[in-house]
Structures are given as C-alpha cells and as structure tokens.
User: Which sequence fits this backbone?
C-alpha cells in the first residue's frame, strides 16, 4: 500500500548530539569540568572486550544529551570546526565565560563582534572549536571581528 501522507511525521526535537573524539577521557574531562555536563556512566558504550568507545553526558539545566564517541579520524577532520554553538544571554555572560575558561587554563578568544551579536570561542582537547553566542544583539553589521585562529572570515 502506497503512503499518501503529504507531510512528514512529527519530530519532537533533538535526541542527542554526537561529537567525535580521539580521546574519550580527555574530551569527557573537558565537557564535565569546563562545560559542567554530567557523565551518565550507566549509558557508557563498551565493546565486548570492555573497551570504552563512547559516553553520554547531560547538560542538567536544558536536559540536552551529548554523546562523545571515539573516532580519531573524524575528530582530526573536524579540527578547527565549530559543530555546536552554545547560547548565553548577554555580552556580560560571554565575559564571565572568558574569565571562567581562563581560570581553568583553557585558551580562548576575546569576545568577538559577530553580524548581530557577540561570540566567544575556545578549543577543546581535539582542536575543535567550541563557541558561545549571546542572545543580546546589536544592529546588523557586516563589519565583524575576524581573527585568524578564532573567527576566520
């Protein structure tokens, strides 16, 4: 019987985000200690040999789930890429994040001006870029900050 439905079935939202890593322990430490995600150890993914190849973390305030999966080749391919941009309320929140990251020895950009708001960028243990963008906006401006490492054009 042919499907005559004209609209796709309903999607509830995002179940989880999967992020590749060359080192599950290093990336887990970054997400837990720097981004304050909680490791849900009962969901650890292990091979029959017992080798850990993925972990699930949760961001408690939003309920967002993130899977960190061992895949060295994909992690290397995404070096310098920002797969996820986290949202914060204000420019001041970006400055607070910048200070927080500095206290933990995480190298990051200065707060940079984007087209409609501001952004902060840091590098995770695999060299992937982690961005925070604020909801506070300014007038649309094509004269944005460009930074060779943090916000290339």
Assistant:
């Amino acid at each position: 019987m042919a499907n005559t439905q004209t609209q796709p079935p309903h999607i509830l939202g995002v179940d989880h985000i999967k992020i590749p890593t060359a080192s599950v322990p290093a990336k887990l430490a970054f997400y837990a200690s720097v981004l304050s995600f909680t490791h849900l150890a009962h969901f650890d993914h292990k091979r029959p040999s017992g080798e850990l190849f993925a972990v699930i973390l949760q961001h408690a305030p939003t309920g967002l789930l993130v899977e960190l999966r061992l895949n060295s080749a994909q992690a290397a391919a995404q070096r310098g890429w920002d797969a996820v941009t986290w949202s914060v309320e204000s420019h001041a929140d970006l400055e607070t994040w910048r200070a927080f990251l500095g206290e933990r020895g995480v190298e990051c950009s200065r707060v940079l001006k984007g087209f409609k708001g501001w952004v902060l960028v840091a590098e995770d243990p695999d060299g992937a870029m982690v961005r925070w963008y604020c909801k506070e906006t300014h007038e649309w401006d094509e004269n944005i900050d460009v930074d060779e490492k943090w916000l290339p054009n």
Notes: The longest strand covers residues 52-59. The mean pLDDT is 93. The chain has two domains: 16-77, 79-153. Residues 16-77 form a domain with the 2,3-Dihydroxybiphenyl 1,2-Dioxygenase; domain 1 fold (CATH 3.10.180.10).
